[in-house]
Amino acid sequence: ITINPERLGGTPTIAGTRLPVVTLIDYLNDEEAINNFKLDFPGTTDEQIQAVIGRIREALEEGWLAERIDY
Description:
Blueprint: E1 2-3, H1 21-28, H2 31-40, H3 46-61, E2 67-68
Parallel strand pairs: 1-2
């Protein structure tokens, strides 16, 4: 995960791409993906999953999970 102020306004992206990481998070946040996850990991609740996804999103927005690069 990288941040470059010259690309996409500093939005965290998947390294080497212009794909915002939040796009991947949104894709994984799909109801079908969550249901499949819950089937593989019984006992996990929607609330737990949403809490984790929310924390990841917050960490991305605050730059905690990204390395700043300048090209």
